[in-house]
Amino acid sequence: MHKFAELNSAKAAQLFAAYCVAQGLEVNAVVQQPTLAELYGATEQLARIEQEFARFLQQPAHPRYQAAAWQLSQPDTQKLQDDGLPVFNWRELWRQAPLTSALLLLCLLVYLWQQVDWRSSSGALQLTEPAQLWRWFTPMLLHFSLTHLVFNLAWWLYLGRQFEQRLGLVMLLNVTLSVALISNAAQYFMVTPNFGGLSGVVYGLFGYFWIAGRLNPAQGLYISPGLVGFMLLWLLLGFFDVLWVSMANWAHLGGLLAGMGWAWLLRKHTGRGHAQ
């Protein structure tokens, strides 16, 4: 992705980006503040994007731009079931993000194993025998309630898919394993070996998106200030122990710091492709 313009209106930048997407052009609007937004476009489409941008600057109030934004905001009726519910296209997800899909499926299978044989599954995957090296990674596969599972997998799907499409499967694998190791080690040494969940990795990806959106917007990985505030508040409330659930707080903090570190290391890495 190549930065081709800045606008002093975030709404105008988002409107133009929405129009370009509707035209099949890969354009991202990265909002820094309400009065500043950066526009990035696919390098191979840059000539046409700049042509469209020049036309937009001449007539920003033209109905074509509002129409495109409205079109994108509507559900795709071809992808709805008869009852109006969206269809989850597993085949398309696997094609776009195979590692994201594989880890999601693995967590689901492990959760089923936990329901069938809790003792064996926990005994095999928790970090109770540190000499067995795989245990430094496998706690991320364990989830102790359906809410715990759904919350983590929803975040993993949201963040992991974008990361894999932008930076590739190998990079996501490296980040996932290293963040899992660091977050699990933090929880193990600070509290107990009896923990589990993908949330340390989720916090790592969140930390990556948060910092990468500031250091290298061209990667196209960005998280809104509202979600940043929610995740940081959730982390803080966990340490104050005022929530109704028991959380692996040190795993969250370790994952967050590891993900932020990865964002700094890859601050000059260029993204690829277009996140759907």
Layout of strands and helices, then pairs:
Layout: E1 2-7, H1 10-22, E2 27-33, E3 36-41, H2 46-58, H3 63-73, H4 90-96, H5 98-116, H6 118-125, H7 146-167, H8 169-190, H9 199-215, H10 225-240, H11 249-265
Antiparallel strand pairs: 1-3, 2-3
Protein name: GlpG protein
Subcellular location: Membrane
GO molecular function, one term: serine-type endopeptidase activity
Brief description of this entry?
The protein is mainly α and 276 residues long. The chain has 11 helices and 3 strands, in the order βαββαααααααααα.
Low-confidence stretches: 73-87
Question: What is the topology, as strand order, of the major beta sheet?
Answer: 1-3-2
Going by helix content, strand content and strand pairing, the class is mainly alpha
Largest sheet, strands/sense/barrel: 3 strands, antiparallel
- CATH level-3 fold name of the largest domain: Rhomboid-like fold
Going by CATH, the architecture of the largest domain would be Up-down Bundle
For the CA atoms, what is the radius of gyration? 21 Å
Work out the count of structural domains. Answer: 2
Give me the number of helical elements.
Answer: 11
Which series of helices and strands comes N to C? EHEEHHHHHHHHHH
Mean pLDDT: 85
N/C terminus separation: 15 Å
Q: In CATH, what is the homologous superfamily of the largest domain?
A: Rhomboid-like
Q: What is the helical fraction, as a range of percent?
A: 55-70%
Shape: elongated
SS strand fraction: 5-15%
